[in-house]
Amino acid sequence: PTVLVLNGPNLGRLGSREPDVYGAADLAALRRLLEAVAPEGWNVDLRQTDDEGELIGWLHEAADSGSPVILNPAAFTHYSYGLRDAAALVTKPGGTLIEVHISNPHARETFRHTSVISGVATGVIAGFGFDSYRLALLQVLASA
Ligand code: DQA
Description:
5 helices, 5 strands, binds 1,3,4-trihydroxy-5-OXO-cyclohexanecarboxylic acid, Rossmann fold, 144 residues, globular, alpha/beta
């Protein structure tokens, strides 16, 4: 089986982007971490885009394939109703979408306190750095 690990805008800059908030490791390191956790037979398909339409297309793909999704919507978290509606397609009965954040948005600026995604997510993990993704993957594996 495949788990889709989808990352929104500016997360391609991890490693150099605000390392005090997001740490010094990049997406390649995240991919290695998750591949080390995934058991034999599981494919970790990690992607990043700055494009809202592309991210929505990937959620449509997951809705069609039934693959579980770990989603860091990045700044789209806070305002993209289009992404929310696409996430709801994935979590239709039987589907899994876990919203993750590296930082704890609730401990940051007020505009980050609102997630338009959480209401249609299966669950949310935030504030644990890359371990937010690792914990989400463990949950996907536990419920598969
Ligand atoms: C983020 C938090 C968002 O508020 C921010 O826009 C991001 C990253 C996180 O992983 O902590 O780009 O989703």
